[in-house]
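Exercise 7. Given the components listed, write out the predicted structure of the assembled complex. Treat all entries as one system.
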Amino acid sequence: MPNNVKLANDAYILKKSLLAQSGSTIDFDNLFDTTREMYLIRLDNIEVSTTMDIRLQYLDSTGTVLSGSNYNHSIIEHHTGNGQSNKFGNLVTSVHILSSSTDVLAGCSIYVFNPASATKKTKAILEEGVGKAVSGAYYAGYTGGFAYESTTALRGIRITTSTGTINSMNMACFILGTEDLGI
Amino acid sequence: MHIVTTNNVVQTATLYEISFPVNFELYRHYKVFYWNINWKGTGSTMQFNLRSTGEYRRETSGNASAGYGYSVRYDDNNNNSYDIATGDAGFSQYGASWSLPGTGYDSDAYVCGILNVWGGASQDYPYADWIYYNDVTTTNYNRFVKGGGYQNVLGQQTSGISFAVHSGSDGFDETIGGKFIVLGTPHNKYGAKMEHRNKNFDEDGKQS
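Answer.
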């Protein structure tokens, strides 16, 4: 095999992971930088103290939480019992990514685009999530998108709750192995 | 999954379509991440299409006679209606797509999303699903779209996947570019990647 021929490269590279984090607010800082435009954040094994909404905010380039009314989100909750609900927000202070309760473990995968850019808004796709609806106690799936409607450079996320605490959750942040394309 | 190719579109001429070569005999599932895509015409729509031939950047031939079916659901960020769209049950040529108003010249507006395509090899019915999030207007009105569809023609081998602006007087907004990362699930271990190298790009997608 010629030296300049590489074997197939796998796509995802783990950048940072943390296990068994807990609290009513949990910060995951220093995830984003200007070397990448796309990140995959996986939240899993989320164990909660009570029935709650799980929300997301961003941390700015100094690690300070951004709690102003700059978040738009459109999240579809589809749940057992043949039902669905829109989790929407127009210029609100956080993004509703999941709901959950004490008898399930929640989790989701989120792709974040342009978080470290100071010229483009940060957008994200919640590709898939699972949890439990607050109303009706239905097991639920989640998918949707959200945006931070300002061109602020971001470097991390904060996970918050509507009530109660997260007893434990894991976080992993992945980048793609495209090193030299400005991507 | 492997990184099959990447593309960062920087185009000075009007561009209506961006396409990628694919080979479903080597990769059974393609997953395309795309972002920083905007288009100029406010009445234009963006579409995903399967191509009978594929090449980088643009090409004009397609599966003109093929039938597609799809269904779509979308949700906006400013109301609680379910916003279900039936989609096209009539298998139109451009069925593997859905329409959004263009966001015009808002320089920081763009669409981002994920497209999955399976089953494009010979003797297959190709099928796909997609999600994306976009500005609908420039006044903080956003929309999430989720859809799925298939091509109702057996054995019409898919050699390309394209993103196209349709029914518009102008194409993509080249000032913002357009970023694409294409991943693939190989059918055979390791060998597929090397055989699938495009002549103009190395295995990391770097132009050579």
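Discussion: Residues 1-8, 179-183 of chain A have pLDDT under 50 and may be disordered. Chain A touches chain B through 46 residues (CB under 8 Å).
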